[in-house]
Every structure is written in C-alpha cells, then in structure tokens.
Design a protein that fits this description.
This protein has two helices and four strands; from the N terminus they run ααββββ. It has helices at residues 2-25, 30-42; strands spanning 68-70, 73-80, 83-88, 93-97.
Length: 99
C-alpha cells in the first residue's frame, strides 16, 4: 500500500511540474493585455472563417492563417469568427481568446 501511495505522490509532483513549465512558457502581463486590446480596437481586421477549428487555448492554427503583429508584444493576433485570438508565433498556438 505504501508503494502505491509513493508512486501516486511522485506522479502528482511530475504533473504539477509539467503544468508549471507550461504556464511559464506563455505569460501575458496586464500591460501587454492592455496594449493588445487597444491596438486591436484601432487596427480592426476582417474576420476569417476556419471551419472545424476550435478556438481554444493550445489549438494550433494552420499555416494558411495570416498572423498580424502587435507593436511591443511578441505575440501575434488574428480575428476568427469575429473573435480576436492571440497566438504564439513560433508554435502558432492560441494563447488567449478575447470575447
């Protein structure tokens, strides 16, 4: 019984570590968030349709989707189905979906 508990505890520690690493990869500061929101209002884009693509954090966008720069922010954005999506450009993964 003790060995099972030790294994379970070790698994939880590993999972917690993975979550912490993933969380460290993408950090949007409140200042960056404000910059993105204000820039997107001033530079509206036409919305694109992506049938079959769910707008969830972690979803990778196809290479056919053009990503647009936000000054002083390392992330890019695009408007999909009338929702602004913030994307990590090297992986093309969604890191935030704005309403």
């Amino acid at each position: 019984m003790r060995m099972h508990l030790t294994s379970a505890a070790a698994a939880l520690v590993l999972l917690a570590g993975v979550g912490a690493v993933a969380a460290e990869d993408v950090v949007i500061t409140p200042e960056q968030d404000t910059v993105v929101r204000e820039y997107v209002k001033k530079q509206p884009l036409a919305s694109v349709k992506l049938p079959g693509v769910e707008l969830n954090v972690g979803t990778a966008l196809p290479d056919t989707v053009e990503l647009h720069e936000v000054p002083n922010v390392k992330y890019r954005y695009v408007v999909i189905d009338n929702r602004t999506v913030l994307v990590e450009p090297s992986t093309r993964k969604i890191i935030k979906v704005y309403n």
